[in-house]
User: Which sequence fits this backbone?
């Protein structure tokens, strides 16, 4: 059933929102009820009843029934392609698709070769047409890939949804692995596309040289198209590389930074701070000596060294002296006094007894002994009624009243 | 050698772990102009002056001794993790913007709180002390009482993350395999 192009485009022009909604999920089957709902939601003021609109859609083959009388519809494939083309929303061709086209081209090259060998102009003409159509499909597939990747990259850059860096990176890796890297295998100079294109060009040249096919214009067009498609594929790949490579590198770096931080935090959670170690830490310098030696301190140290030259340390005589030091002997005499006096008390004149006991002692030593006994707790002292007496020590004459000493217990 | 400009000033800063960057104006300019002379001078007293490829300077330290370092590490890693989860470019976001103490994500998740507990950062107020330490070592600067920005030396944390990512199964090669210039160049010549 043929469709009037004027009616078709008139309908499309007045139902753009409906067509866009229809093609958003183009692979999804829709029931009549769903289609009516879609028509109502995207209806304009001029629209007729939904039933009439659906009838027009059927008539103009905007939608096609999945099975006869099933009541389920799909948007027509050519319409979806046309909208993608018009709205720059082409889906990229996978490497399998492009490889399939190249295989088809290879097949038609085989046919062309046989036709040239059999010298059959009619079959050569048909084979050349098939080759041209296949080239056209390759061109379109490569273009669609380019558009698809550009759209995906643009969406990627403007996407403000809460998708983590790691997820973004995985998406870009997916794009690379599915659409870009396999294309390299196809278009590289020693790849399958180049070999097939070379063979196609050789056969077209042969058809031209051997004058099997008289429409030289068609052969020329095909040869030009082979070169065009080759250039186009290389340019598209180059553009895709330029688009994706910086994105990949930037995301790979961000991904690695995030992965490193995650490793550090995971170790902290698992092992605790005590076993975290120094690897996650960024060392920062700290001077252990808080205050460096100043110039003034250095100058002072030098002055001391210069003005006071080093001399040997004094030698200590650690051997025991042969004679008891006087101070030690005096201390020992003082300590013995209480017991010795206790044995002879009462004494009528303490000072006289002390001088007689140790005549060689100095006056101050005699008086130290006198005061020790005078205030000792074991003894009691008092002045006698005798008059003042003169006492002669080793160095002095002393004048004093005599002092009697007796035991405190008496 | 004693004629090196800002010598005393630089030593006073660098000995505390400070990183001299473009923010330090004349001192940084002096280091940029006579890097080798300064390195030789400090080398004579056993201090190694490092000039980072991003043109900031610091004294090398074999291992961290400051009590703040674990806190700084956890503080920074949480910030990086949070930025990555938002899907934002990490370096551009952290080093290109201003951060508010109140807007920090550290106490928004239980997992983050657990990490902070390990390094005794139990209250939001303590984050201010960490940021103040970052300011003291020249990794950040206050732009208001509550807001700060990271300075160029903060990239040492990023580098540490990249080194740590060697232990991660999620690590990616930074150059995309198959996307090198060679394939395209050959093709262009042919075309």
Assistant:
């Amino acid at each position: 059933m043929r469709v009037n192009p004027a009616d078709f485009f008139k309908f499309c022009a007045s139902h753009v929102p409906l067509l866009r909604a229809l093609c958003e999920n183009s692979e999804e089957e829709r029931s009549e009820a769903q289609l009516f709902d879609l028509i109502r939601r995207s209806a304009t003021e001029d629209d007729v009843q939904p039933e009439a609109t659906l009838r027009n859609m059927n008539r103009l083959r905007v939608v096609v029934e999945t099975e006869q009388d099933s009541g389920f519809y799909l948007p027509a494939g050519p319409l979806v392609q046309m909208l993608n083309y018009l709205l720059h929303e082409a889906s990229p061709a996978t490497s399998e698709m492009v490889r399939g086209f190249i295989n088809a081209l290879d097949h038609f090259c085989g046919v062309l070769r046989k036709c040239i060998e059999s010298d059959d102009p009619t079959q050569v003409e048909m084979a050349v047409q098939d080759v041209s159509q296949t080239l056209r499909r390759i061109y379109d597939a490569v273009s669609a890939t380019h558009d698809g990747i550009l759209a995906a990259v643009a969406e990627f850059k403007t996407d403000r949804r809460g998708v983590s860096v790691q997820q973004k990176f995985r998406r870009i890796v997916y794009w690379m692995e599915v659409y870009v890297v396999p294309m390299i295998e196809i278009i590289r100079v020693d790849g399958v596309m180049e070999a097939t294109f070379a063979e196609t060009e050789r056969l077209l040249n042969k058809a031209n040289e051997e004058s099997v096919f008289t429409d030289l214009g068609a052969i020329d067009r095909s040869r030009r198209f082979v070169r065009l498609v080759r250039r186009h594929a290389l340019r598209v790949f180059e553009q895709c590389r330029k688009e994706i490579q910086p994105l990949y590198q930037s995301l790979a770096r961000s991904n690695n930074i995030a992965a490193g931080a995650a490793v550090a935090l995971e170790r902290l959670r698992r092992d605790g701070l005590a076993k975290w170690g120094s690897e996650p830490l960024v060392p920062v310098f700290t001077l252990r000596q808080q205050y460096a030696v100043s110039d003034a301190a250095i100058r002072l140290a030098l002055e001391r060294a210069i003005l006071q030259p080093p001399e040997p340390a004094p030698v200590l005589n650690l051997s025991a002296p042969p004679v008891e030091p006087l101070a030690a002997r005096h201390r020992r005499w003082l300590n013995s006094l209480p017991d010795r006096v206790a044995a002879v008390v009462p004494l009528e004149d303490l000072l006289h007894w002390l001088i007689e006991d140790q005549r060689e002692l100095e006056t101050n030593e005699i008086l130290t002994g006198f005061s020790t006994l005078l205030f000792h707790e074991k003894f009691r002292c008092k002045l006698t009624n005798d008059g003042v007496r003169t006492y002669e020590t080793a160095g002095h004459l002393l004048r004093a009243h005599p002092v009697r000493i007796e035991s405190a217990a008496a | 050698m004693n004629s090196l400009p800002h010598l005393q000033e630089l030593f006073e800063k660098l000995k505390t772990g400070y990183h001299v960057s473009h923010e330090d104006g004349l001192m940084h300019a002096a280091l940029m102009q006579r890097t080798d002379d300064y390195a030789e001078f400090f080398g004579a007293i056993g201090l190694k002056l490092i000039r980072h490829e991003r043109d900031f300077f610091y004294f090398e330290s074999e291992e961290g001794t400051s009590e703040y370092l674990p806190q700084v590490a956890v503080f920074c890693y949480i910030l990086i993790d949070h930025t990555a989860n938002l899907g934002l470019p990490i370096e551009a976001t952290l080093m290109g913007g201003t951060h508010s103490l109140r807007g920090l994500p550290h106490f928004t998740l239980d997992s983050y709180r657990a990490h902070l507990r390990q390094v005794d950062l139990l209250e939001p107020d303590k984050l201010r002390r960490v940021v103040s330490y970052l300011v003291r070592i020249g990794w950040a600067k206050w732009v208001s009482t509550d807001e700060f920005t990271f300075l160029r030396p903060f990239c040492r944390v990023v580098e540490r993350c990249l080194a740590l990512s060697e232990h991660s199964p999620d690590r990616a090669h930074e150059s995309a395999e198959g996307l090198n210039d060679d394939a395209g160049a050959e093709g262009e010549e042919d075309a």
Chain A has a mean pLDDT of 82.
